[in-house]
Design a protein that fits this description.
Blueprint lengths: L9 E5 L4 H12 L3 E6 L2 H11 L3 E5 L5 H15 L4 E4 L17 H26 L5 E6 L12 H21 L4 E8 L8 H4 L2 H10 L8 H12 L10 E4 L7
Parallel strand pairs: 1-2, 1-4, 2-3, 4-5, 5-6, 6-7
Helix pairs in contact: 1-8, 3-4, 4-5
């Protein structure tokens, strides 16, 4: 029998009860990991915990709060003795209708950065501190293709995801001597609960599918399997990079 790819590893997955995060939680457990399902949606989180128990526990987690990260790590270490993987997946798209630069409201900008950038720093920092105790680990920060390229809208989102991507490179360089790898995953247009409203508009869906050479939008599993690779020892010499999973969109 093939050894599970994450056997004996412990992970925190933020936004872990829905969309890409839920897919990561499920796949990680299937591949042998123990998982802290970090999310603010208690209904979904508790339901997923019940399904994946005893290999996963739900933690009602506001990722923008510094002290909450200490609590998340404490749960992992007290229950399973270690922390090997952090997937900083929780994110937000920002205010609808105020996405070009001259219309951006500062509070909206700060809200987007709190979740998409600052929380990634907090999660990476917490993960590094714990991973040093066990001789290494993997931090996976979910950015976006819109952290690489621009578009006609979404200025706060672009900036926050770009910050997450380049922050990952800085952390990778700093902690490579500790055998801690830090990488970014950059999804293209993906069907998740966060995109249900916009992808439910036929004109937008058709346009985005037309922009994607493979002719379809991504599924949460498409992204989660990339995270699985970066979480596993198969990627032991991979750090400071971004894994673009976009059906070829940025290859045009």
């Amino acid at each position: 029998m093939t050894t599970p790819r994450l056997q004996n590893k412990v992970a925190i997955v933020t936004g872990g009860a829905s969309g890409i995060g839920e897919a990561c939680s499920r796949i990680f457990v299937r591949e042998g990991a123990k998982v802290i399902i970090s999310d603010i949606d208690a209904t979904k989180g508790n339901a997923l915990e019940a399904e994946l128990t005893p290999d996963a526990v739900f933690f009602n987690h506001d990722v923008t709060q510094e002290a909450a990260w200490d609590d998340a790590v404490e749960i992992a270490e007290s229950k399973w003795g270690r922390l090997d993987i952090v997937v900083n997946n929780a994110g937000m798209s920002g205010a609808k209708g105020r996405t070009v630069v001259e219309d951006v409201i500062l509070d909206d900008w700060n809200d987007v950065f709190a979740v998409n950038s600052t929380a990634i720093m907090l999660g990476t920092r917490a993960g590094i501190r714990a991973m040093k105790k066990v001789g290494g680990g993997s931090v996976i920060n979910v950015s976006s293709i819109f952290g690489i390229v621009g578009s006609k809208a979404g200025a706060p989102y672009h900036a926050s995801k770009g910050a997450a991507r380049i922050f990952s490179k800085a952390a990778a360089v700093q902690y490579a001597p500790d055998n801690i790898r830090v990488n970014a995953v950059c999804p293209g247009f993906t069907d998740t609960p966060m995109t249900t409203d916009i992808h439910g508009v036929k004109e937008i869906r058709d346009y985005r599918e037309g922009m994607t050479p493979m002719g379809r939008l991504g599924l949460p599993d498409d992204i989660a399997y990339g995270c699985l690779y970066l979480a596993s020892d198969e990627s032991s010499w991979v750090t400071g990079t971004e894994l673009v999973i976009d059906g070829g969109e940025t290859a045009w």
